[in-house]
Amino acid sequence: MAPSLAAIVLAGGKSSRMGQDKALLSWRGMPLLRRTCEVALQCSSPVYVVTSRVPEYRPIVPESVQLIPEDETAFQGPLVGFAQGLHQIQVSPIQPDWVLLLACDLPFLQVPLLQRWIAQLDQVKSPIALLPRSDKGWEPLCGFYQGKCYNHLTDSIARGTRSFQTWLSQETVQEIVFHPNPDIAAQEKQMLFNCNTPADLLQVPIMPE
Asked: Is residue 18 pLDDT above 60, yes or no?
């Protein structure tokens, strides 16, 4: 039986390096946040968005997506935002085996490639996460976490951890295996590209609304 899967999309950042709300940047005629949610919905259900901008984002995300309010004045980074999303899952009637975590600004996500990664979840036993690795280390905002990781995460946050890399260094993580075909593997690695700055926009055909 395939493992059950929910998804959390993080859209709580202030986009300070971008200078405008990157979740609303248009990609192929669609806001980045909506496209990320639609990709997530094709891979999992339910889908949650953690954000401090519920009124702004409600009209642009699919109706089935649940928005989790985040206090913008107390924003503590994506790790805490992830914990807030996991808390919502913990109190839901259905507990998924795995959670797909995505940043809202990943323009190159592809459903078939994510589904290929999902197929690798059956091979994961004890590791807390299944994540891609790049030259920079683990890529925590485009990967999978065991649903049971909530207690591990909140314990680490209570000790003062605010960095994904710090938390993951305390846990056992399994690496996603990229496709043996180098062209497909290149597309998988491209999915990890996110838009943080105006310079990043020059690398993809995205235009502000």
From this structure: no
Phi, psi of 46 (to 5 degrees): -80, 175
Q: Tell whether the model's pLDDT for residue 131 goes beyond 70.
A: yes
Lowest mean pLDDT among 148-162, 170-184, 187-201: 187-201
Neighbour order of strands in the sheet with 30-31 = 30-31, 26-27, 206-207
Q: What is the CATH number of the domain that holds 117?
A: 3.90.550.10
Q: What total number of domains does the chain contain?
A: 1
As a residue count, the chain comes to 209
* Percent of the chain predicted with pLDDT > 90: 69
| Domain around 132 | 5-207
